[in-house]
Amino acid sequence: MPAQIRCVTYASIMSLGLASAARVLIPAAAAESSIAVEQANSLAQLDRLETVVVTAERREADVQSVPAQVVALDGRSLRDQGRISVQQMLEDVPDLTYGLLAFQQSPDNPNQNISIRGIMATQQTGGLPGPAVVATYVDDVFQGIGADYDLNRIEVLYGPQGTLYGRSATAGVVAFHTNDPILQTFDTDLYAEYGTADLKNLTAVLNVPAGDSLAFRVAGHAEERDGFWWNPDGGAINNYEARLKMLYQPSSQLTVLLSASFEKIQPYVGGPNQVLSAPRTINFDVPGVAVRRAADRNYTQFMATLDYDVGGADLTYVGSEYSYQSNGFRNIAGPPFMPIDSSARYHPDQSSTHELRLASNSAGQLTWLLGANFYSDNYQVTSTSIVERATQCGPCGIPDTTPGVAGGEIFSSDRGSSVMDYAAFTEESYDVQPNLRVTAGVRFDHNVVKKTTSYDFNVNLDPFGQSVGTCANLMAYGGAMPRSCVTSSFLTKIKFDNFTYKLRVGYDVGPSSIAYGIISTGYLPGDAQISPQPKPDGTVSYLELPYQQERLTSYEIGSKNRFLEDKLQLNGAIFYYDYKGWQQAAQLGNTVGGAPIFAVVSVPLQVFGAEVEADWLPTSQDRLSLNVGWYDDEITNWPSIPGTSTSERSYITIKRLPGTPPAAGSARYEHIFNFDNGSVLTTWTQLRYTAGYNLIELTAAQFALLSAYDYQPSYALLNVGATWVSPGGTFTATVYGRNLLDAETKSQINLNQNTFSVVPGEPIVFGVSVGAHF
């Protein structure tokens, strides 16, 4: 049966407790709604661990039978624990780190920067990220939207996934699957949450059948919240989303799934800054710029999936169109800088994906898959930076040297990018013996990247960056005649070809145990950045910085096991990565005009580590879960920067890459209380530990003075909660608390003139939610 017509029932999941990696799949037929309720009531006691079905390798399979490291998370359970952001959803996945990037900083990158097993995206000129190292999907849409509501499950695939997923799957894949329409069933799902920082989170879902073969699912989501106590106004954000799905299944051979999704984000910026006054002390009240609402960020997404059983094989087409658009104010940079107003207009940013697969669907010694994929992304943004009047900076203490006169334009830029990827791939599995399977896969990708850049630089700045007008209306300063802004442009085009492969052996050690070994490769697409070099006379030259493809070879062995009549699950993996040429842009100095001078540095990495997952049911009312991950990603040597005699260690100082902790783990205990009236109460306690690590890269000159500020010591977080489910699973109520130990952490830092600005970690958070399912 195609994956699109299988679903997770709310009642059955809730009565199973809030297991982090469990879901029960049943066919979506009308008569089965009542069966699901009966299942829910009978499963109030946990007699054995659940069967977890995933589509990680483009076909349905029990996760325990997949000879690879895969983590599955239930969407409903995450929501009822108060974990509604992507960062919170993924926080317990071993060896995974989530770092938020500014929206749409780079065309070929999602809004989140996810690292798995220490492999992170390269940081390029001006802090712009390169292509992502972890491919994210929402309902098979690359870098899609709508992962935070009406969510069925999340699947995390570890290691290179180049053969099936291609570009940007160097470190792994994170796939979000939202709930599909259910045939012949009318139901409603309502959810409301209130929490710390005036959080208001609402979701409404309606599933409507239209005959025996057609169904619609409409989901709407609204989330509004203030910033946390240190900046309630400037950290506020509103998010409004909607999705319409249509499922059409005229026969057992054909399934058509269509969806349209929309999202609007309304962010606020400004307010006090948070900086480090000591290595472990955050000053939350440094005066900053006045709070303003930034331009709305608008997203649109369309997706179509068609499955057709051609007899012995399934023919699948997946197509998507994605668009991002924003126009207006983005931010004001305050101290230690002059107040600088930046605005941007996207024209918009558009991407599309088309994939066609043919896969065997019958049991036998040989299973096979053939496919082809096309991906394109077109991006154009116009940005302008203007020095504001000092009064715009609020209480930042900067004098307004020219009262009543507007600030001047520093520069405006127009950047464009076109990325196209053409790919063909295949993967086959063969049963050498009943208990021995071999899988082999290959993929070829052809990438074409075009980048264009044009700049207007204003060289008529006074010492305070004010009283200079704009490029369209320059003003004289100090009696001197103003010089016109200089406009120039630059175009570059690069092509890359890449071949990836996978070879895997899986062996059934026993009825519920498998061992496996994998050799696989992945690649990070090549890229090019253009660094403008303005000169005092107003002319501009351009430095082209090409980024070569980065290739990773992975060696992994692991085992998956169930013992004690399916009451104990123990999975583990050990891996080694050989990473050729991790790259980033190092700032070598500045031009006479003050613009930074960059060079691309490239260093080889080796990564080795392990993960362990354990799930145990000591009684029918108790559950213990443990997830632990450890790895070490080290630079093996520092060659010289091309064209110089300078060692790259001057700019990449820390041997272990910063930004990801070397070890982390979580332990969770659940207890189920069954009441005489048929209702169920599940309580949980969770302890999370994160080892200490450096957050950003420092040069050799900076390291001696600032490394203590850059370092985040190890810390522990305590989360608790309880969920009550009414008889039959119609109503739910949840209370939760996060970070009850009140750990104060540095989530992110930025270094500006030897001053660290900080994005603090989540403080103590409390919340309550209610839900209804009819």
Topology:
Blueprint: E1 6-8, H1 10-15, E2 25-27, H2 32-42, E3 53-54, E4 61-62, E5 70-74, H3 75-80, H4 86-89, E6 96-100, E7 112-116, E8 134-138, E9 141-142, E10 151-158, H5 162-165, E11 172-178, E12 187-195, E13 199-209, E14 214-225, E15 237-248, E16 254-269, E17 273-278, E18 281-286, E19 292-293, E20 297-309, E21 313-325, E22 327-333, E23 340-346, E24 349-360, E25 366-387, E26 409-433, E27 436-457, E28 469-470, E29 473-474, E30 486-510, E31 513-524, E32 527-534, E33 540-547, E34 550-563, E35 568-590, E36 596-619, E37 622-635, E38 663-674, E39 680-690, E40 693-694, H6 700-710, E41 711-712, E42 715-725, E43 731-738, E44 746-752, E45 755-760, E46 765-773
Parallel strand pairs: 8-11
Antiparallel strand pairs: 1-2, 3-4, 5-10, 6-7, 8-9, 10-11, 12-13, 12-46, 13-14, 14-15, 15-16, 16-19, 16-20, 17-18, 20-21, 21-24, 22-23, 23-25, 24-25, 25-26, 26-27, 27-30, 28-29, 30-31, 31-34, 32-33, 34-35, 35-36, 36-37, 37-38, 38-39, 39-42, 40-41, 42-43, 43-46, 44-45
Query: What is the CA-CA span between the terminal residues?
Result: 26 Å
Shape: globular
Largest sheet data: 22 strands, antiparallel, barrel
What proportion of the residues is helical, as a percent range?
under 10%
Oligomer: single chain
Strand content: over 45%
Rg calc: 27 Å
**Average pLDDT number:** 82
The counted number of beta strands is 46
Secondary-structure content class: mainly beta
H/I helix tally: 6
